[in-house]
Structures are given as C-alpha cells and as structure tokens.
Fold these 2 entries.
Entry 1:
Amino acid sequence: MLEDVTLTVGQYELVLNLFSMTIAAFLGGFIYLLGMRSQVARRFQPALLVSAVVLAIAGYHYWRIYGSFQGAFAVSGDVAEPTGDSFNNAYRYVDWFLTVPLLVIETIAVLALAKAEKRSLLIKLVPAAALMIALGYPGEIAETTGPRLVWGTLSTIPFLYMLYVLWTEMGSALSRQSDAVRVKFRNLRLLLLGTWGVYPIAYLLPVFASEASASLLVGREVGYALADILAKALFGVLIAQIALVKTAELIEAGEVDLTDGESVRVTAP
Amino acid sequence: MLEDVTLTVGQYELVLNLFSMTIAAFLGGFIYLLGMRSQVARRFQPALLVSAVVLAIAGYHYWRIYGSFQGAFAVSGDVAEPTGDSFNNAYRYVDWFLTVPLLVIETIAVLALAKAEKRSLLIKLVPAAALMIALGYPGEIAETTGPRLVWGTLSTIPFLYMLYVLWTEMGSALSRQSDAVRVKFRNLRLLLLGTWGVYPIAYLLPVFASEASASLLVGREVGYALADILAKALFGVLIAQIALVKTAELIEAGEVDLTDGESVRVTAP
C-alpha cells in the first residue's frame, strides 16, 4: 500500500496544511458563488448555484480526508508513522463521482443554451464524467501496476470523449457567443484541460516508482489537492465571471434590467 | 442481533463510504433546493423549501448513523469486529418518521392545488405516512421472525392506502395538469414506488436468512442508503424540475412575471 510509509513530520504537516487550505478555499468559494447570484441575470444563477454545490460537497470530503489522513499517521519525534488505520482514498472518488458531473452541468448551464442543445450536451457529458471516475477507482486501490494501467486506460476513454464533445459540439455553441465570452470560455476550457491533466499524473505516480515511498504519497496528495483547488474553486470563479460578462451584455442590449432603481454596472471584485 | 457479526474490512469500508456519500448527496441537494427557490414562481417555493428541510433532517441522521456504525465495529487486521456498542437503527426510523410525511407534503405542495383539494390529500396521506413508519419500527428491532412479519404486515396497510390515494385522488388532480407536468409526475410516482419498494426488501432480508451474517447486514444498510438517496435527493431534484416546468407554463400564460425587469427564460441546469 502506498500509505504504508513513514513520513517526516515536515511531509506530514505539508499534506495536512494543504488539505486545510483546500477546505478554506472551498468555503470561501462557496460563499462567494452563493452571494454573487444576485449580481447576475436570473438565467445564469443556476450555474453559480451548482458551482456552490460542488464546493460544498468537495469541502465536506476534504474535511473527511483531513481527518482520515490525521488518523492514518501518528507523529513520534521527527517522523509520522502509519497507525494501521488506513487512509481512505474512497472519499476522493466519491467526491469526484458527485462533483465532476456537476462541474460539467455548471459549464453548460452558464451558456444558457436553448433546451435541445443543452439536453444534447448533458446527455453526452454527464454520464461520461461519472463513468470516467467510476472506472478510475478500481485502479487507484489496486496493489499492482497491471490493473492500475488497465483501469486507468479504460477511464481515459470517456475522458477523451468528453474533450471531443467539449471542443466540437460545445465549440459550435460557443461560436454564437460574443468575443468577450469566447475568450473567457477558452480560458475555462484550458483550465479544465490543464487541471484535469494533473489527475492522471498523480494517479500514475505509483506506476513510475519501483516501491512505495513517502515522497510518492506526498506527491500524489499534493497533486490531487492543488488540482482540486484549481478545477473547482478557480473554475467556479471563472464561471461567475462568464455570467457577469453575459449579464452585462444583456443589460447593454436592454434585455435585462438589473438595477437598484437606477442603471448599475455589474462588476466582479 | 443482525449487528453481532464480524465484517471484512472491505464490507465495513463499503458501508461507511456509502453513508458518507449519502451525507454528501444530501448536503448538495439541500443547497441546490434552497437556491433554486428564486427560479420558480412563489407558489412553488414552499415545495422546494420542504424538500430542502427533508434533506437537512436526513443528512443530520446519516451523520449520526455514520458515527454509530463507526462506533459499533473496530477494525483489527483484515476484519471489523463488534465492539459491543450497538448500531442504532432508531436513527433511521426517527428520520423516516419525520421525513416521509414531509416528502408527501412536498409532493402535494408542488401541485399548488386549491385549498380544499390540498387539505383532503394531506389529511389522508400524512397520518398514513407517519403510521407506516411507526408500525415498522417494532418489527425492525424484533429478534425473531414472528413479530417482524406481524409489524411489517401492519405497516404495509397504510402503505397500500397511500398508494391507493396517490393513484386515484391525486390522479384526478393530475388530470388537470399539462402533458409535460403529467409526464414528470408519472416519473415522480414511479420513483416513489420503485424506491419505497426497496425498504420492505431490506426490512425482510433477515426473514429470508437462517442466521445473522455479515452480507445480510451489509445488504440491509446498502439497500436503505441507496433507497434514501433516490427517495430524498433525486426526489427533490424531480420536485424542482416540476416546479420549473410549471413556472415556465405560468410565464408563458402571462400569469407570472419572473424577470430581471424584462422577459427571462427560466432554465434548470
């Protein structure tokens, strides 16, 4: 098991502190997204709401992950040794199983597409997202390289399919958006590609190493946590920015009146 | 007692992880339903609110159930052995005693019926729901098959009465709804029938087995937890969808103005 290693106190504290930072980032993002709903046109509010739901679910899981990591190691002197209580990786996968489909939903929701177009994207992307996570878990808990590679490869198939749909079908939906929205959406997709690329690297770390080691465990946990912060909290902030830009465009076009009795500029802090 | 069995670590972790997933699903659903109230006409908002209340109560109880299960077993090596602290099934029944009548209330509330019609349904369905749960509990904690079957049968009487009312009296209330709402409501009732059918099966598992076993306990807990996720969280999402469809119809008919100053499309993510 990757977790049956002795950490230095520095490594142990690095991981715990990073988990705590993740909880704090999700808490802050959660409140921001809930509150920013009143700054955007009603049609974009569900996107911000779903984004807040993602951060609440993920924050709950990092709370559990923090506790599980704390229970799995006991500090004695300069080292943190395994207690025998296993570090529960399932929290991550349950989290991703719930939140990755929701991240897809918020991405589609912020476009406020026509019903048929929205439905077509949801039907393709949401099951693919759930399948990607479900196929990854057996590989994550595998003790040997063989099954880890097999399940990892199977999980990659829905991932590639999602990228294909995001860059083709969603691309054509994007072509009807304004330049400003298209630029923001390009950044959003690049963030998605960049952060989602970290997960397979963290997942494959054990394959590249000849044996379990402390730095391997720390590398995996740091990789997953940083990727989660970017892919959920920063992603949510970008979703809010897109909603703000689109709201400003609707106000400009006279389609939406979002005022306190007077004309108002909608701005992101 | 069904709980006096030794589990494998895998079985123990499966149950705990599923309980944790249930908490996360209820947390997410709770936030979603509270937030979506601003997307529906005011007359449907209480239905979403009651649905959020259900998820809050159920999430609290799963937090207790998680802790009770964790305290009832101690991992040692490859197995999880009973500690002597009993796993508290009463949390489930208290939860159902409070939430099943509320689920009935939210189902009636989302129809926004005339007062007399609403009252007639509530008077029949709410006491029947409470009675169904109250009669089930003595059977659940019974040590032998006899009382389990007797109480189970008594509990089935209000259950069948509820199905009768849902399919006859509510059926006639539904006949005045639009096609789109009727289809959604058909799905809602089928979900109710399908998930509520899981509870008696999980309840009767001990009757079919000659003795207590780990797989029996795991089967019962997995069955109850999955049924709860579907019957409460997914049920709540369907309630929100019905409210959104009915709101869109009211906007279409010019009866409701739910705008940011001007015409607005209400969309569900």
Note: DSSP finds nine helices and three strands in chain A.
Entry 2:
Amino acid sequence: MSADDPTMSTDDKTVDDQVTAGVLQVARQARAAAQVLAPASREVKDRALWAMADALVAATEAITVANAADLAAGRQAGLSPGLIDRLELTDQRVADSAEALRALAGLDDPVGQVVRGQTLPNGLLVRQTRVPLGVVGMIYEARPNVTVDAVGLALKSGNACVLRGGSAAGRTNQAILQVLRDTLVRQGLPADLVQSVDQWGRSGAVALMRARGLVDVVIPRGGAALIATVVQQATVPVIETGVGNVHIYVDAAADPDMARPILMNAKTQRVGVCNAAETLLVHAGAAPAFLPQALLELAQAGVRLHGDERTAVWAPPGVTIWPATDQDWATEYLALELAVRVVDSLDQAVDHIRRWGSGHTEAIVTNDLAAAQRFTAQVDAAAVMVNASTRFTDGGQLGLGAEIGISTQKLHSRGPMGLTELTTTKWIVIGAGHVRP
Amino acid sequence: MSADDPTMSTDDKTVDDQVTAGVLQVARQARAAAQVLAPASREVKDRALWAMADALVAATEAITVANAADLAAGRQAGLSPGLIDRLELTDQRVADSAEALRALAGLDDPVGQVVRGQTLPNGLLVRQTRVPLGVVGMIYEARPNVTVDAVGLALKSGNACVLRGGSAAGRTNQAILQVLRDTLVRQGLPADLVQSVDQWGRSGAVALMRARGLVDVVIPRGGAALIATVVQQATVPVIETGVGNVHIYVDAAADPDMARPILMNAKTQRVGVCNAAETLLVHAGAAPAFLPQALLELAQAGVRLHGDERTAVWAPPGVTIWPATDQDWATEYLALELAVRVVDSLDQAVDHIRRWGSGHTEAIVTNDLAAAQRFTAQVDAAAVMVNASTRFTDGGQLGLGAEIGISTQKLHSRGPMGLTELTTTKWIVIGAGHVRP
C-alpha cells in the first residue's frame, strides 16, 4: 500500500470528511517530522528533553492558570473528585513532570541497538536494528501529566506523537503543547513532532485511529469503555492498556502475616490504578487463620466488601459482607471495594482467574514452591507475582525507567511499556553481489 | 474483560449468529487445548512433530487423492495456472512438508527463554519469560503446504491454531488435518490443537477474526485484497504479511556487472513471491552504462517493461518499453513485469520508495559507502538490502529457521516471522512479602 494514500482511511462515512482531512494533514506533518527526528543522535534528543523540562518550569504560571480554567469548568460539569484530582496541575506537579523529562534524558536510547546479527554461511552480513515506530497516536483521558510523559517518551524513542487528550483538559494541554512545540523549534527540531487533534473532538479521535499508513500505532490509555471503543473502531494497530481486574490468591500454604500486608498494600496503597487488587481468592484451608483479621483490617480501612457465603462465615462482628454476584467478579472497582471468594484449591483459583481476569496482574501468596510454580505457569497474565504486592506492575518499579502504559495484550508488548516498546526493527543485509541460487 | 465472554464478538450482525457460535466453540476448544500444550516440554513437542512427519508420508496417497479432486474442481472453476501450481501436492511436495516438520523439531524452543531478568535493589527477583501466544488464527489462500507449516510452527511454539485455508483446497486440507489430529491424539496431545473453520466459508473467517478474547492473533497470508479485508474487519489483533511492492535502486556508484545479476535474480528467479522486485530505479548517472544491457536481458527473460520517458531513451532496438503510469509504480505485479524509472538522485529514489513502497524489502546497489548508509537509514522497510538480491528476505535465508509469514507492519514483528514471533512474554516477580512504599 502507499504510505501517503489518504483514501485508506476515508472509507468510513461516519467520520466527517473535513475532520478526516484535517487529521490526515496533521498525521502527514507528523510523519515528515518523524523522518527528520529518526536519525537524530541521543545527544540531540536528550538536549531537547532538558530544554523542555526547563521551559515547562518557566511556564508554570501560564500552565496552572489554564489548568485552573479547566478545573473550574470541570467542577461546573460535575466531574468526580477522582477525575478532578487527575486533572489538577499544581506547581509541584508541573515540577514533577519536568523532572520526569530529565529522568528520560538519563535513560539509554533504544534506537540503533542491534537486536541480533550474524554473518551467514554465504557471507551475507545480517543485522536486525531498532528503529523508531514513526508516528504514535495517544488517546487518553484528562490527565495533563500523561501529555508530558507521552511527548517525552515519543521524543526519546525517535517518534512523532499525535495526541487526543480529553476535552476536560483542553486548555491545560494546549498550554503545555505550546511550550513544548516552541522548545522544539528553539532546539532546531520540527514543532510538528508534537501535535494534538483535540480541536476535532471525538470524531478527530476516530479519524486518528483510522489513519492507516500515516499513524503506526494508537495507544489508548484510560477506562475500559475508551479502550473498547478504540479497539472496535481502529484500523491502525492498537496496543491495549490498563484494564486490570487484578486477583490476589492466598494459598493454603500462605503465611497470614505476609498475606495481609500484601493484600492491604495492593488494595489500599493507591486505589483507582490498574494494578490495584479487585478480587481476593482465599484457599479454604487458609480462611480460618487469615480471613477474620484480613476482613477486619479491610473494613477498618474503609473497604466495602463483596463476598460469597463461605467468606461471610469468617466476617468478624460489625463487618458487613455484601453478597457477591458475577458482576462483582467481573468488576474493576478502581475504588475502596473488594470482591472476596473462598476456593477449595489452587486449580479453582486459576479457573476463577481464567474466567474473570483481564490478563493484567495476578498474585499468589504461598510458602509452597510447587504451588508458586504451578500458579505462575498456569495463570496467563502480563505479570504474575509471588509473595509481592500487585502494585509492582509498573515500568518504574520493574526497572524500565519510564512507561507509556501497561499493555494487557499479547502482541508487540505485554506489561509495562517503556522506550524499547516504542520502537520496531529493521533488517539490514549487506552483500557483495549476492543472489539466491 | 472476561476471556470466555462470547458476546465480545457477536456485536457484528453481518455475521450469521450460528456461524459465530460454531466458530467461538472451535476457538474455546482451541484455548483449552492450548492450556494443555503450553507447559509441554520441547521433547514432547518435537516427538509430535516427528510423528506428524511420518504420518503425512504414510498418508501420501490419501492426501494426493483428495488433492486431485481439488485440482479437478479448480481447473473446472478456471483457476489460473499459478494458483493451480500452488494448490497441487505431489508425492515429493508431501515429503517436503514432512521434512519441514522434522526441521522444525531441530530448532530451539523459544518457550521458557528468559528475555531479561534482574534482582531489583529492593530484592524483588524479576524475570520476563517467553510464553506461547495461545490461539493463533491463520487465514490464507489455497496452499496446502502452508497448512502443514502453520500447524508445525504453532505446535513447536506451544500454540493452538485455527485455520481458514481457502475453499479451493478444502478436500486436501481436510485430509491433512485428519492425519495431523489423529497423530496428536496418539501422542497424548489434544486433537483440538489443530482445527479448521473452513466448513463455515467466508463468514467463518469473519467470525474467527472477531473472536476477541479467545483468539490471540490472526495472521492473514495471501494477496493484498485478503489482507485488507482482514485488517478492516478484524477486532482480534492482526499481523499483516506479505504485500511487497519491492524496489531496486541502482546508484550512480553501482557496478553495472554486479547490479544486473542482482536485478535479474530479484525479478526472475521466482515470480509471484512477495520479495521479488517490482520496480527498478536507476540513477541518471548509471543509466548509460547499465540500462541498455539490463533492459535487453530483462526482455530476453520475457519481462514486460513499463518505463518512464527517460528509461525509453536507453531501450535497445527491439525492446519495447510501455509507458509507465502511477498505476505501475503502485502495482505488485507478481509476474514477469517490471516498472522502470530514471531518477536524478538517491534522495529522489528514497522519495519514490516512501511514496509507493509497501515497507517490505528495498535494495540499493552501490559501491559508495555513504550512499549505502543514507539509503539504509532513510528507507523505512522491514528489510533493506545493500548489493544483494531482495529474494533474501526470507526466514530460512536470514537464519530464523522456518517462517510463518513476512510481516510488513511495525508492531510485534517486522520482516520474516519465525517461532519467536509466535510467542509473547510474561513478567514473573518473586518477592518475600514485598509491598510498595
């Protein structure tokens, strides 16, 4: 197919043709900018990251003023406290975003790394080298810090990015992108490495996810509904992120005093994140020693408990267990709520996870090596934890440096996605007149 | 999402609900079978591959008889000689397919390989391990040898496969699958590791590419139309393969006596394959010494030539140059036809390739190191050749062992896809009660 053929993405009549034309123009500009950045040295890219960090800090007031306007509009529109919190940019949060860019500058550049290479028996010199993807589309909800992270990760990995950042953060994102684009120009790089399609609203997002041949990947980051929409409508390759219906299985051979802190950390250290626990599975043999105290601590922490009948048996006085339904097994609460089920075996726990899990993170607490090995082998998820909190599924925590999201799909990238996951490879074959016999 | 929720793929009313139900049942059986195979040792898988090879050879007569019926029907339906040739299975070709399975048994098993691992400062032991994808859907055209290759590659990499093999090869594929399924059972493995949805025709293929949560990847293998259909209609992740609008650029600093054999090999050694050359770009400075003889040899080899005006100038007497149009620059001939254009610079060649290339394979012939470096850096393709035939873009030729296809997309896998490309990874994190501060 031709990389520049706009007809590829206008076959869908539900997308307004003018919006499509506008988005395709943005994508074409991004593609041209990406071709300029691709050969740039790490030094050039790191210098730009440092300059962006300084520029963001210098522009803190302009950014927070724009953010205050978004916040006021958001409160008026009745956004939930959680959403308002994600939307808010304090001076400190701007400084944190700038620091994140400086941290990126300190990471290795994946571009140019040789993945594998050899001289073949016939003398052909073959090497597979990392190269940027090209143009990365990000579709996310109103979280201005994601804007800065996405731009930084894309730049460091040699890619252009096209952002759809959520209307509620429109003023804030515009202020941030203005600062970042101006900095790129001052650094002698194309401003179009960083663009937004927010002015076209939802149909702009749809056009972006259908810009085949111009956009190399679309990464949706947000709730299950957003991700499902992108997966259904996109014709550009998609990397799904983030939906985490996360389980903790407390095995018969678990140490209750190890299991409780892990459970409390996974459920309450930070709610509303995809690696927080949503369902607790307890082996019947572990229930007597573990459940009463665990349920009490959860209740004291303000966690609303949904349990099966065998769980209710172990509820201490004053702790309410709401009857759990299939809906509870299926739900990613992202709140101080937990589903609890007593199972008869590790196999039953694995079956429950296969039935209800989202393939994000699953954990077992046990001192039985065989049980740990069976659980890690049989559970099919991006990350499987043994005697550790599910909250460790995070690019920073796992040593990747930054992350652009956590993939819950199996293709290209699974689990936390760092810089390497924003690259592809190119086979380079050097011969001396070689032909195939 | 729940991995077993059939509603995920029945949202499309164009697919007959009964067909969908049937295909989802097949996919569910495949998933269950894959869970049995996933932990199998290399020894178990290799033994099954050897047994399959022997069983195929033993069943040669039954298979060729079924194939003869498909061939007769195909000829009656007026299939092109090329398609008939791909469809035909001689005793020798059955033996070759069996030998391919034995070769697979000799390759390393990617499953269980540790991609990266470390002990983090906090003492968490982290490793990223290769695991099978799960269920691989293959949608291809009537080529029975692909059936055997796909089954072998899926089995060796620990995956179940669901095949849609093209109606024209229906009887042949059925005979082959019967042999392979019987062998699996004799080896103590589930027959449902290998299934077909051919009985449901095209709507079965559509249901397969929409079985989200049950099928982990769909790999279309065939012409541009087939691949475009899958990309448009699939909701399961897709790996695009094969479309190759392949260019050879003869640089000003090329040795004509090296360039001609490379060109002839790339165009005529085997036509109808995706790594065959379709367009020749010649630097104006190289044209006088290179083009007349090259055009003559091409014409003598029976290649129909479509050229621009500057190419026609160099045509020797008796060699016809048909006027090239944009259609020619865009076409993957897969036949003894070639588009030829004279360009003024390497940059113009790169621009032409960016405009018309399909990102499969591009080649430069030059003795100028700087030119080779600029071409390999600026051309965005799965494989870039310097002074070598484009026909080397092949899993076997590049040292991957077998290949299931050649990816022309950037996600997950780019270029020839071998066993490793049929796996994903799983993070396994071992702690001792670790929680996040």
Note: Residues 246-392 of chain B form a domain with the Aldehyde Dehydrogenase; Chain A, domain 2 fold (CATH 3.40.309.10).
